[in-house]
Amino acid sequence: MSDLLQQRQHEIAEEFEFFEDWMERYEHIIELGKELAPISEDEKLEEHLIRGCQSRVWLLADKDDAGNVKFRADSDAIITKGLAALMVRVLSGLSPAAVAQANLWFIEKIGLDAHLSPTRANGLRSMVQQMKYYGVAFQSQKQV
Amino acid sequence: MSSALDASALRLQFPILNREVNGKPLVYLDHAASSQKPIAVIEAQREYLMHYHANVHRGVHALSQQATDAFENARTIVQQHIGAAESSEVIWTAGATDAINLVAQTWGRDQIGRGDTIVLTRMEHHANIVPWQMLAEEVGASIEVVDVQDDGTLDAEQLQQKLAQRPKLFAFTHVSNTLGTVNDAQALTALAKSAGAAVLIDGCQAIPHMEVDVQALDCDFYIFSGHKAYGPTGIGVLYGKRELLEAMRPWRGGGEMIDVVSFENGTTYAGLPHKFEAGTPHISGAIALGVALNWLNGIGADAIMDHETMVAAHARKGLSSIEGIRFIGNAPLASGVVSFVVDGTHPYDIGTLLDSQGVAVRTGHHCTQPLMERYGIPGTVRASFGAYNTLQEVDTLVSGTIRAVRMLRD
Question: Which pTM does this prediction carry?
Fold first, then answer.
């Protein structure tokens, strides 16, 4: 597994280590959401929307010159945007293969795994799935 | 502010209300989605399973007789609770959704045809929209929608226009699950009837909060679910006038709903109410729903309505201090539902932060997407109250919402 992926997950786990309750965790997630650069209005297209969220989540992916995946995301709900910010921070800039195969242990480590259940309205699960699909898609592009 | 009902004492009958959520005492304000259950209801189901479970209407043995008696007794409780003329007008269903689908697929298929009109309102739950859309598509009928006004009441003028088209059916909710609006069901029914329409009323949000008398309403069908009225999930009620139910074809075929089954001579069906109850019913659910309705009667519909209105008013007053708050639904006559949005915040964020403070509210479209579209919002935060909610809980909701909004805006 990518060292960068491990390093990033460790950093996030440390960041969340000292929060005592959910309000503190959410406060931090909200902060991260506010810091994440918004995507422009004309990029908020239907085709970039992730299904299965109570709030709207837009996810965009490109490949940079080195062939790594660059993610950008936005949401009209700030907590969801904070979750998106965490995902972008962990996966953006990795190779398509690393994205596709990423073992995202930090989600459970910081207690967000409850948000991964299919019925949760925040769409974290759909977000993770969609990001991995992009990894797979970019991988096969390379082979063509 | 005070009311005749002592919610603090009543709460002791609800074991679940003692639990904690996210390390905080549970404040359950999602009654409109599903109510919590008093110990009497929980015990009734347990008692049945422990002591007299058997299949109903079949056996000559003692357990089957006892189960059948309790099951049919529950039907009589429902009959009396809603003021039906006879207990055979009370059909057990799997829930309110199931009941509406039953009417759409039997009465609807026989009575509604190509070119006919069904009138609905914009405040309907999806359960009172989609079965009619499916039917309309199938038979070539059309659906007309009565709009809601800014305050959440029905547009009476538009209703008159729609009724002038001589629809076959007017189906509407007694009480809106999203807005809290209490419709004048009796007046609406009279209007529809004078236009020659049959009337189906969705009473899910009315039964737990107010007195309902189907004969006084004079509606053709009245439906409700058990789990929103302090009863179990998986059980609901379809009330229908005898003459309509008798004329209706059965929907689901199977055991229980038959008179004689024969390959040679064809099958004949049972009479009311069993004609519509194919298969083994939700026996414990029906029995426990009877207990729940008796429990409601013990407290009294007026006392419950007064209490919930008082609690909702307290919530509105407290929440009003939040800058940029907008209440969705301001009808003069409303149930204990407070739906709101706050400028610059998303309902999902407020709901999530309330949850982490132990407060259970519902966020989103509440299965009323056409209504959200009407108000131009993605959803609301909805606090809905039951007999067991206290003013202290409302204070927790208010302080929790204020804290959430501050965190989201800073």
Answer: 0.94
